[in-house]
Amino acid sequence: MIFGRRKSPGTPSSNVPGTARSAPGPATRVATAPDSAAAVPEEASEDGSEDSADELGRPGPRFDRHSPFYIGFFGGLGFVLAGWLFGQFERIGGVLILIVVSLFLAAGLNPAVEWFERRGMRRSVAVTMVIVLFLVGVGLFVLAIVPVITEQVTQITDNAPGWLDQLQRNKRVQELDDRFDVIDKVRDYVQNGNFGQSIFGGVLGLGLRLLGALANGFLIIVMTLYFLSSLDATKGALYRLAPASRRERVTKLGDRVVESVGGYVAGAFVVAACAGISSLIFLFIVGLGQYAVALAFVVAILDVIPMIGATIGAVIVSAIAFATDVKIGLFCVIFYLIYQQVENYVLYPRVMSKSVDIPGAVTVIAALVGTALLGVVGALLAIPTAAAILLIVREVFIRRQDAR
Question: Residue 325 pLDDT > 90, yes or no?
Answer without folding.
Answer: no
